[in-house]
Design a protein that fits this description.
With about 850 residues, the chain is α/β, with parallel strands linked by helices. Helices cover about 45% and strands about 10% of the residues. The two termini are about 50 Å apart.
Length: about 850
């Protein structure tokens, strides 16, 4: 509803045709796009506690018409009809006890574990047939609409001489047992609320449409119904204009056949940063008399900066935020910058909802042409001239060519707001003249022995070396020594008896800028960490994952505090990163980077995140470090240093490859192929899992242990996996996942099966939370394999019941021991000495042999007296 409301309000004049610009409601397209993404990620569910809800019919159809994706719309309606539709209407949701005859009307609410009593006897509401009638009429499905009209006629009840629709239909008390035994078999009776005006009015509208007394636009004055069948303008293209930082850059690009304009050539149109637009928009809606604060000063995303703005008397083009080089260092990596440009152009084209065409301005700077990736930038600009970027139609031209076709956004009144005088210019640093120019030939890491000697020197001696050494690494290390002695606001020149004030912070800024221009990424990141820099896109990256129903764990280890489950400010995100990781500021910087890359990836390749419920940033970082350690044959510390030295685009590639390795998880519940029994018996002791259980390849993993480390780090759990856990709960009293001594963490089967349904998101998040608490990724994966194996065993043996709580840890421990002793029977008396070797061997087993170990362990625990450690009363 919020998404539909934003679309309906956008451009709406509160005073109608007589109103001026001051009374127009301004809605940023990015807010609509984010709502669209959130809605599409949530459907066909309505919330995490309900796997399906009939109320969603008013969202996918009349009156909101909030979903443009016809496949998703059809899937959602089909899901509702399959799960909730009956003879008398639709249930609101599963386990709904409202007005059921056994409901206790004197209670405010039911405890969750009591909801199971309402299974299969939930009331059915004709109201939702009225929605289905209207939705089918708007979709042009006249035959389906006729069917629902006939169903509704059959539900009419005579009341005061009129045939009217009741609120709902109830299962009579004397028929509850029969209905539970055979759902939809018993005759229901209407309640006393006749008519439900809501249902009756919608039914009348449907009849009037069918009888030709009304047209669809009569009951949909805003034309929301056309949103579903909206066809994109076939001429839509993303317009791009290239701006040169100065005449020298323009001349250089002209020689290469690339046409640009300078800022002076497009005057009086101004070019400003996206942060200036965010500041200006704080005046929209501001009214001190009414106590209205105006729009918060929030970052503006790509759709928001893709219009030509007239703010007060000024015409302004705003630059995309992610290209701001004065912020975080990612914009200095040309390869990554070009890739992000491609993705943003695709995002703009996919979500553009304005009458005109989008306009994107790109400023080409000196350091972009001097950068090691400049050739890739030139190729990108040449590609723009061909009119298409990876399937996104684009049009390259001068700004004056696009003024007529681009979207114009006008806000005449900005109260007393005035833009800063500076528009787009290179940052200046008071220390730039105090450091020697970089000697590229001499720039190299400093020997630890030299560093040790420098640590013994006084401040003045260090500053003297700083002013005479042209090695950028040396300049950084000296500043770092001084940082350990003083605060960042310490004035170095005062110590050096120089009248020019230059704080330690300013010196670091100069080293940061120089390292960025030279792409010396280890120094860039170390300087950024010391300076406490953060990317302005950090909030957006987190939000991009959240709106797609993902949780983000930003700590080294999983915990509630380290897990972000709702939008947060950059300050809060940074605070969590610093609190739940080591004090090493370089870890904080890499964590930020990974979050940015994950935010970019989830927009461009959302399928990479399928079956991921918690994105564990720390585990992904650790997985990349371990891979570097194995590739370089070095220590973990050296591997982390190597990570710091990688170009941002290389780390982004590592993240994508890491997610892509296990993008397509295979369902492992095909019983007929996975579990075989010995021909001589049909008992569990004779059952063996076949190699069909094993994946066809291990990706880039060298062995099964590394495969488990990688799968456990990524943390994918498919619908089949949660169905497996649901199956296990039906065959035991409870389940403790990897917490032997935490009985309060016990998953009580009766309680869970009573209050939840198999596919609702709250069950998924509960199990996911328990798995996330297993800090070791390889053991987390082993636990998942154990649960899947148990599910297959129980499904093949439906009468098998464990009359106690199953502890996965204990089951795995016995599986490891039995597997080892089977291979090394002569070591039975020395198993305590062999435990480490037995675990190493078990991690190296293929999945089918691990599953067979679980069979043996379960047999052992069920059949051996006095050794039932895996079963707890």
């Amino acid at each position: 509803m919020a998404k539909a409301a934003l679309e309906a309000m956008s451009g709406f004049n509160l005073f109608g045709a007589e109103g001026d610009q001051a009374s127009i409601v301004h809605v940023l397209s990015d807010e609509i796009a984010r709502s669209r993404i959130a809605l599409e990620s949530l459907l066909p569910r309505e919330s995490i506690s309900k796997e399906v809800d009939s109320a969603v019919l008013s969202i996918i159809g009349y009156p909101a018409f909030a979903v443009e994706d016809l496949d998703l719309l059809e899937k959602t309606e089909q899901h509702i009809c399959e799960k909730l539709e009956g003879k008398y209407g639709c249930k609101r949701f599963l386990l709904d006890g409202h007005q059921v005859v056994i409901e206790d009307r004197h209670r405010m609410y039911y405890e969750s574990h009591e909801l199971k009593q309402f299974m299969d006897i939930e009331c059915e509401w004709p109201l939702f047939f009225s929605y289905l009638l209207l939705n089918n009429l708007f979709a042009g499905n006249t035959e389906k609409a006729r069917e629902y009209r006939e169903k509704l006629k059959g539900l009419l009840v005579e009341h005061n001489g009129q045939l009217l629709l009741p609120e709902l239909y109830i299962v009579p008390e004397d028929k509850i047992a029969a209905e539970r035994a055979n759902p939809h078999s018993q005759e229901r009776v209407p309640n006393e609320n006749i008519p439900l005006v809501w249902a009756q009015s919608l039914f009348i509208l449907g009849e009037m449409l069918q009888d030709g007394l009304l047209k669809t636009h009569d009951i949909d004055p805003l034309g929301r119904g056309h949103c579903i069948h909206y066809s994109r303008n076939p001429d839509l293209k993303v317009q791009l204009t290239l701006l040169a930082e100065d005449a020298a850059v323009q001349s250089k690009l002209n020689e290469l056949g690339i046409n640009t304009q300078t800022f002076d050539q497009i005057a009086p149109i101004q070019v400003r940063e996206a942060s200036h637009l965010a500041a200006a928009l704080t005046q929209v809606g501001l009214n001190k008399r009414l106590g209205l604060s105006g729009r918060p000063n929030k970052q503006i995303r790509a759709l928001g900066t893709s219009s030509l703005y007239k703010l007060g008397e000024d015409q302004i083009v705003f630059l995309p935020q992610f290209m701001n080089q004065r912020g975080f260092y990612l914009a200095l990596d040309i390869r990554l910058l070009v890739e992000r440009l491609r993705l943003e152009l695709s995002y703009i084209f996919r979500h553009w909802d304005r009458p005109g065409k989008p306009l994107v301005a790109i400023v080409i700077r000196h350091n972009m042409l001097d950068n090691e990736g400049h050739q890739l930038l030139l190729e990108f600009m040449t590609e723009l001239q061909h009119g298409e970027i990876r399937g996104t139609p684009v049009q390259l031209g001068n700004l004056n060519e696009f003024i007529r076709t681009t979207t114009h956004e006008t806000i005449n009144y900005l109260h007393d707001f005035h833009f800063a005088e500076t528009r787009v210019q290179k940052p200046t640093n008071p220390c730039s003249s105090l450091l020697l120019p970089i000697n590229k030939a001499a720039t190299a890491p400093i020997n630890p022995r030299v560093l040790n000697d420098w640590n013994k020197l006084e401040d003045e001696a260090l500053i003297q070396i700083l002013s005479t050494d042209s090695n950028l690494f040396a300049q950084f290390e000296i500043l770092n020594i001084l940082k350990q002695r003083h605060e960042l606001d310490f004035d170095l020149n005062k110590t050096a008896h120089n009248s020019h004030q230059c704080r330690l912070r300013d010196w670091f800024e100069e080293v940061y800028t120089r390292a960025g221009n030279q792409n010396i990424w280890s120094l860039v990141r170390r300087s950024a960490g010391i300076l406490g820099k953060y990317d302005a896109d950090l909030e957006q990256a987190i939000t991009d994952m959240l709106v797609r129903q993902k949780r983000i764990s930003v700590g080294r280890e999983y915990s509630n505090g380290a897990t972000i489950q709702r939008p947060a400010s950059a300050t809060e995100i940074l605070d969590r990163i610093r609190t739940y990781n080591s004090p090493n500021v370089y870890v904080h910087i890499i964590t930020q980077e990974l979050i940015i890359y994950l935010g970019v990836l989830i927009k461009s390749d959302p399928d990479l995140f399928s079956d991921m419920h918690t994105v564990r940033v720390g585990h992904i970082m650790q997985l990349i470090i371990i891979r570097l350690q194995r590739q370089l044959d070095c220590t973990l510390g050296e591997a982390f240093d190597a990570l710091l030295a990688l170009a941002p685009h290389e780390i982004a590639r590592q993240v994508k490859e890491t997610l892509a390795d296990y993008q397509n998880s295979e369902s492992q519940l095909s019983l007929s192929e996975l579990l075989r029994y010995d021909d001589r018996c049909n008992q569990l002791s004779c059952a063996r899992f076949t190699t069909q259980l094993n994946p066809k390849d291990r990706g880039r993993a060298l062995d099964w242990h590394e495969w488990r480390e990688q799968r456990g780090s990524i943390g994918r759990q498919s619908e089949a996996f949660f169905a497996a856990v649901w199956e296990v709960l039906h065959h035991c009293k409870g389940l403790i996942i990897s917490e032997k001594l935490s009985s309060n963490r016990r998953l009580d089967s009766e309680e869970i099966l009573a209050q939840m349904t198999a596919q609702e998101q709250s069950f998924v998040l509960l199990i996911n939370h328990r798995l996330d608490k297993i800090q070791s990724p390889d053991f987390r994966q082993l636990t998942m394999e154990t649960l899947q194996a148990l599910a297959v065993i129980f499904q093949e043996n439906p009468d098998l019941q464990v009359d106690d709580t199953i502890l996965t840890d204990t089951l795995i421990n016995h599986a490891v021991r039995l597997s080892w002793l089977e291979k090394h029977p002569e070591r039975a008396a020395y198993y305590e000495e062999d435990q480490a070797l037995s675990w190493q061997g078990f991690y190296q087993l293929p999945p089918n042999e691990v599953a067979n170990g679980i069979i043996d362990a379960l047999n052992y625990l069920l059949n051996v007296n006095n050794e039932t450690q895996g079963v707890q009363a």
